[in-house]
Amino acid sequence: MAMNREGRPTRPASEAVSAAAGTFTGHKGLQHEERLLFERGSADRSGVDLPEPKATRSRLGGLERQGEIGLPGLSEPETMRHYVRLSRQNYAIDMGPYPLGSCTMKHNPRLNERMARLPGLADVHPLQPQSTVEGAIRLIETLAGYLMELTGMPAVAMSPKAGAHGELAGMLAIKAAHDANGQSARRIVLVPESAHGTNPATAAFMGYAVKAIPARADGTVAAAAVEAALGPDVAALMLTNPNTCGLFEPEIVEIAAAVHEAGAYFYCDGANFNAIVGKVRPGDLGVDAMHINLHKTFSTPHGGGGPGAGPVVLSQALAPFAPLPFLVRENGRTRLVETTGEAEALGARPFGRLTAFHGQMGMFVRALAYMLSHGADGMRQASEDAVLNANYLRVMLADTFSLPFGNQACMHEVLFDDRFLKDTGVTTLDFAKAMIDEGYHPMTMYFPLVVHGAMLVEPTESESKETLDILVATLRHLAEAAKAGDAARFRDAPRLAPRRRLDETRAAREPRLRWRAETVAKKAAE
Amino acid sequence: MALERFSKDHEYVRLDGDIATIGITNHAQGQLGDIVFVEVPEVGRQVKAGEPAAVVESVKAASDVFSPVTGEVIETNASPVESPALVNEDAEGAAWLFKVRLSSRAELDGLMDRAAYEKFVEETA
Amino acid sequence: MRYLPLDDADRNAMLARVGVGSVDELFAAVPKDKLLTRLLDLPKAMGELEVEHELATLSNASTPAGSVPFFVGAGAYRHHVPATVDHLIQRSEFLTSYTPYQPEISQGTLQVLYEFQTQVALLADMDVANASMYDGSTATAEAVLMAHRLTRRKKAVLSGGLHPQYRAVIETLAQHGGSETVALAPDPADTEDIAPLIDDATSCVVVQYPSFYGSIRDLSEVAAAAHAKGALLIVAVTEIVALGLLKPPGAMGADIVAAEGQSLGNGLNFGGPYVGLFATRDRFVRQMPGRLAGETVDAEGRRGFVLTLSTREQHIRREKATSNICTNSGLAALAFSIHLTLLGQKGLARLARINHANAVDLAERLAAVPGVAVLNEAFFNEITIRVPGDAAETIERLAAKGVLGGVPVSRLEPDRKELADLIVVAATEVTTDKDRAALARALEEVV
Question: Taking 90 as the threshold, does the pLDDT of residue A274 lie above it?
Answer without folding.
Answer: yes
